[in-house]
Design brief:
Layout lengths: L10 H13 L4 H15 L15 H4 L4 H6 L8 E6 L5 H13 L3 E6 L9 H8 L3 E2 L5 H6 L2 H6 L3 E7 L1 H9 L5 H7 L5 E5 L3 H5 L1 H12 L3 E2 L3 E4 L6 E5 L3 H12 L10 E6 L3 E3 L5 E3 L5 H12 L3 E6 L11 E4 L3 H9 L6 E4 L6 E3 L20 E3 L3 H6 L7 E8 L3 H11 L4 E6 L11 E2 L1 E4 L4 E3 L3 E2 H21 L2
Parallel strand pairs: 1-2, 1-4, 2-3, 4-5, 5-6, 9-12, 9-14, 12-13, 14-17, 17-18
Antiparallel strand pairs: 7-8, 10-11, 15-16, 18-20, 19-22, 20-21
Helix pairs in contact: 1-2, 5-6, 5-13, 9-12, 14-18
Bound molecules: cytidine-5'-triphosphate.
Cytidine-5'-triphosphate binds next to α16 and β17.
Amino acid sequence: MASITIRNLDDETKQALRERAAQNGRSMEQEVRCLLDDAVSSGSGPEQKPRLNPAQDYTETVSISAVDEEFGNYPGAGKSVLLIISGGIAAYKSLDLIRRLRERGVEVRCVMTDAAAQFVTPMAVGAIAGGQVFSDLWDRASEQDIGHIRLSREADLVIVAPATADLMAKMAHGLADDLASAVLLANNRPVLIAPAMNPQMWANPATRRNAALLAADGISFVGPASGEMAESGEAGRGRMAEPLEIVAAVGKLLDDRPRPLAGIRAVVTSGPTHEPIDPVRYIANRSSGKQGHAIARTLAQYGADVTLVSGPVNLPDPDGVETIHVETAREMASAVEAQFPCDLAVMVAAVADWRSAATATEKMKKQDGKGPGSLELVENPDILKMVGHSADRPRLVVGFAAETQNLETNARAKLKRKNADWIIANDVSPEGGVMGGDRNQIAIIDAKTTLKLPDLSKTEVATQIVERIADWFAENTASA
Ligand code: CTP
């Protein structure tokens, strides 16, 4: 699919677009696509689509990009940042930072100091950022084309990574003798800096004073972290924050979406559990954790305070979520219980129903001619049932029902048996490819109704569920 970057939208239009996208449960990028689709196909102005209902043509309209899918509606998607790279060995990490921001849908423009060019080449930075790199205050071509003032004004955020002690000193004292410092002085956008320097430089009273001045000026910091330095034998505080930490800090600063679940404490389970048989073998359910992780991440984006209890998965911990890693159903049950009291429980994990009655401490060996031994199984705790019947029951309890037949009947039976408020039923027959795949088709079932949604990506499914959770809390808090 072709990608278009739209620049210079005024703030009002951006805000209206953001609200419209949130209302329709779409990312900004999807919303723009829908608007364009509508305008092009009708030949007239776009119409507002109703919020997602099982409309037949919906899946046609919403095709979500790879960016959104893998990184689940990163709050900075569709925004632009100006990255200023100053001269330190950590400049090599800026290349990774650019890549990670861009794959999350952030447009990155770069300014480099002369010293930065000693560590990474402008050509490498430009190739990864996908555009021209600016470095010369006196470059007539780029000054005419863009101008050092517009460079920062067109960005939603200015990032300085790495920020050397020298550039921090210039910023603190308003010096502007090169492009980077001139851009920073002429800037009226929020600034995030990722300091990187030798620990003695960071500890030096001059740097301490400069850092305090910058913080008082409203500049945000990420890091520095402690650890070994590039110089041999040097260690201490001064390492630049890792690119993913910077990406998380950028996401927080760029996140201006409404937060309807602020103040709600949620616990989410995700992934499979592994029930050991011996040190090398285990019993497990098929589950990638993609759906549970997407729900935890989306709840956090809507402002909830989320604890994710995750079985073994190959996924990064979602941004903005406290993640507890467990192996077995019993560990998962006690991690969930430890979160009580809370307002919301969403139990997505594919918990293994049984475990081996005994766990061998040594690897069980084949015995010649005897054939396989038999395994005695015992039942695991049913976590959703325990949550649904708990004296401390969360106000809203949501479970999943993974079924291969009689979807609705089985899901309704689970709703009752486990005392859940909603069951999200999905067909996990192997031919559907839900287990491990990126798409899902669900029905949201409560005591009275069944709402079937079309086939959607797991991120979109998460948005649909979380939208309804937010509506439920809005209704049930207002009338309380
Ligand atoms: N669940 C749970 N603890 C278990 C088993 C299931 O918390 N030991 C939760 C799941 O996280 C899901 C719901 O219960 O939210 C239904 O899970 P599912 O595997 O579909 O149902 P089971 O109760 O295991 O019933 P069955 O396997 O007979 O379909």
